[in-house]
Each structure stands twice: as structure tokens, then as C-alpha cells.
Design brief:
Layout: H1 3-13, H2 19-28, E1 35-40, E2 43-48, H3 51-64, E3 73-74, E4 79-81, E5 86-88, E6 92-95, E7 112-118, H4 124-128, H5 130-137, E8 142-147, E9 152-160, E10 163-171, E11 176-177, E12 186-187
Parallel strand pairs: 7-8
Antiparallel strand pairs: 1-2, 3-6, 4-5, 6-7, 8-9, 9-10, 11-12
């Protein structure tokens, strides 16, 4: 068992396990460079940033920046969400103009207006299920999933009673019309690329 696992086990026994405690320990652990760290329902996930993944994230950020100032657009920044130990570092987050950090120096989920997650193969289930549920519970008005493995995007809006009441989706190349939402713009997806899988080694 690792030192981190030992400490988490001790904290669980003492009822002291919190997101702050877990992230404090993670900051002291040798997390590989280029990995994103999140806590989803109390489970720690370390995801490598793939080149295509980052290209799509940056593409979305650049499109948001045509309307919003840099201070409102975040990437891989910890924000805590409703549920049991949910500390996410979403791929793209747009916070409200009047958003302010809490007394711990963190942005509040109540001030999040838009979240985009670009699917990573090993953590896709998180984006489609527990993270979507947490975003809906927090009342995030617009949640976008971009899936380079299927070449499709999925848009969730109208959160109510812990779930999104509206869902639409389409293929890469089709525009994402957010003009009827708080985001108020159209995202182009024609430069989003399918994730290329490595070729098998030659015999």
C-alpha cells in the first residue's frame, strides 16, 4: 500500500477525509508532468494530456476568448462540486462575470456557467456519468462533452432537480449553437479531430 493510501485510510477512520486533505497529499506526491489530477466521488484519477485532446481544449478556449476576457475562462483549475468528494479540474470552464473566489481561494461551482470536457479514453465514464450528475446538481447551465473517439459532441442544458432536461448531439463539423444559452455564441467543430489510435507494431 502506498503512503497516500495509508494516509487516506487513516483519515477515513478518523472521519477527516476531505477534498482539501486529499489535494494537499496529492501536491506532495510525485505526479508525472503532463498529467491532470481529479477526484471523482472520492477516487483519484490521473490522466495524461494527449496532443489531440489539448488541441480541442485550446480550440474551445480560443473561441470563448472571442467574447470573454481571459480571467473568466479556466482550464484544469480545481473547482469542488456537489456529491461525495468531487474536486474536478474541468478541461474548460467559464465563470460568471461577478464570480469571486471563496475563502480557500477556489472558484465556486455556483458561479460556473459553462463546462466542456474532452473525453479521455480511460476516464470517459466519469464525464458521461458522475461528473455530468455533479454539474447538473450544481446548476451549471451548459455542459458540453466532446468525444474524439466517436467524432461526436453532446450538449446538456436546462439543469433541474439534479439532472439535465435537454440533450442534443451531432458529429464533428456541425456547429454547436449556444446562442440560446448564457454562453451566447456558436462553437465551430470543423477543426476537432478524431483520436488516432496507434498502429500495431509490425511483425
Amino acid at each position: 500500500m502506498t503512503v497516500l493510501a495509508d494516509r487516506i485510510e487513516m483519515a477515513e477512520v478518523n472521519d477527516e477525509l476531505t477534498l482539501d486533505v486529499m489535494f494537499e497529499w496529492l501536491e506532495k506526491m510525485p505526479v508525472p508532468e503532463g498529467y491532470k489530477v481529479e477526484i471523482v466521488e472520492g477516487n483519484i484519477f490521473m490522466t495524461p494530456q494527449r496532443d489531440n485532446h489539448w488541441d480541442i481544449v485550446l480550440n474551445i478556449v480560443e473561441q470563448l476568448r472571442t467574447k470573454y476576457p481571459r480571467k473568466r475562462v479556466k482550464s484544469d483549475v480545481r473547482i469542488d462540486y456537489p456529491g461525495d468528494l468531487n474536486g474536478f479540474a474541468s478541461d474548460v470552464t467559464l465563470v460568471a462575470e461577478e464570480a469571486v473566489k471563496d475563502d480557500r481561494g477556489l472558484w465556486r461551482c455556483e458561479d460556473v456557467q459553462f463546462v466542456a470536457e474532452v473525453i479521455s479514453k480511460k476516464t470517459a465514464t466519469n464525464d458521461y456519468r458522475p461528473k455530468k450528475d455533479a454539474y447538473a446538481a450544481a446548476g451549471v447551465p451548459v455542459y458540453l462533452i466532446v468525444d474524439p473517439y466517436t467524432g461526436r459532441w453532446h450538449l446538456y442544458t436546462k439543469p433541474q432537480d439534479g439532472e439535465y432536461r435537454s440533450e442534443v448531439g451531432s458529429d464533428f463539423g456541425d456547429e454547436i449553437d449556444l446562442t440560446g444559452t448564457v454562453v451566447g455564441l456558436v462553437l465551430k467543430t470543423d477543426e476537432f479531430a478524431h483520436e488516432r489510435r496507434p498502429r500495431p507494431a509490425a511483425d
